[in-house]
Specification:
- By secondary structure, the chain is α+β, with helices and mostly antiparallel strands.
- The chain has a nine-stranded mixed β-sheet with strand order 11-8-9-10-7-12-15-14-13. It has an eight-stranded mixed β-sheet with strand order 4-5-6-3-18-21-20-19.
Amino acid sequence: REDCAGRRVMPSYQNAQEAETLLEAAPLTPGKSASLNEPSSSTRKFAGMAIAATALIAGVAGVTHATGKTAPAAALSEEIKSDWMNPIVENPTVHESSTGWYFYKSATIARTGTVDVVADFMARHTGGSACDAVNLGCDGYKITCVYGADSDVDDSTTSMMWDRQLHYVHAPKLHSHAVDGDDMGTDGWMDFMEESYDGMSEFNGFMHNKFTMFTGDIEAKAVELQNDNHKTMKRLSVYHEGGYSASITVSLEGYIWEFVGFAPDACANPEAADCSYALWSEDECPAAHTVDVNMTALTGMIAREQERKQAGDQFGTGYANSSMWISNSIASSNIFSDEMTLNFDLLKNRTQAQVRYSGGTESAGSPTCNVATVAYANLNQEYSGQDDHVTLKYVTNWKQQNATSKRTEKTYSITDYETYIARVHKKYLTRPHSGNPDDMWRNWDHFLDQHVGIKWYEDTPNVDVCYNHNQDITSMLKDHHISCGKRAVDGDGDHFYTATPASTMSLEYNTECNYGAMGETNVCTCNAENSNELAFFMNETDQNGSIDDDEYGCHHDDEY
């Protein structure tokens, strides 16, 4: 095998025989050589994400949710549940270096034709820096900004390596329908959620799907959004250091952005007539909206680094943003299901995550919901500041499991959403064109673009440690039959986009090094398989007709 610094050119495919391998992933088992011609030793069946369209919620014995009733299980077929829960090989290796995993990005989906709307909102309202619409090929774009603190270090290399990114992915050519021609897909679900919010007039459970941003001046953000005619919802949470935190939520193309900060002075008493914010109600699950960060410290960090930037300090680029990404939330039908328990166990065993549970009690003000918060505490925080860290919250709000579109009057549940996405994963991620069940990892569907990214990072990269983590993730996914779309990016390592069981957002693992066969593919949204290598073979072109146009998102013939 070659180390991360050893580069080799990936060939473009030249003949029909090679084209037949375009959708074969050949994920390597630890210890195997990185050879395209070496077949995988496993002939296991990848069960993937098969979920019955009409599956009903079933009870799980011994699991009780916040109301004291038996908690419902996710609507997963017993056959598939058996595959996930009974891996062929258990390999719970905890590596010697355990300080490098962290949440580095999150992404959601932009409805067809909304690139300009999303890019404008993100650049003008989210407080990010280095905002851009990056061409991914043809009419595909990654609309992105950078958030967080990465400039407490004294060199630009480390400053740039510690990243916080939020994306919208616009890719209308990618597969996203559970049944060909159905009226949902990614656009249909985003339409439904936007319509169910009814101008942010009333809370529903799908609003738990959100980015949460800290801002130093919450009232300025409220005025800014109001002046641009955005509908908002304004709430208060009890802050752990005393007083209240204020929350402003707004929808951008069906996905929620929440801005939080110190509550204005007028809300020292939430019942005061001049306080325009209301406390989160019991049915809205206050435990899901608590602000866990040190807001005083973050305010100081942003102010200090903005002063450094104004003074011309060459570092400090990470603080060019006026807000910081502090959390992501995912609505869940049942955080106590077997599938979610597996997800949490894998995060703890393979990435050293910490998982904390809250809600479910009268004293917490959230007796009808449960929250699982996933966090990382590692030494790399010294590079970004000890108060700059991101958490991931899975929320089961037992009182808010359904929502209704005000336009179509159709009602869908969180379970419906999970089930639909799982059926899409099953349809498109488990197709072995080679006949080898291991050869699936070059497939793709658009719901994989809705993900939370977890990165392995070292300030001084160690090739062997990186490979070790890379192959541990590979084994984890194969052993538990979790489908995956793997993409390899020059200079940014292997990205494992997983069909995470019972989750509407994929967990993406990024190991910062490449360990794989010749022919691994990068992204290209000119084809439904999201493959630049396939684009080369099919001679797919951008609007200018040039496959090698430097402005074209698939021009890269990556080197490893």
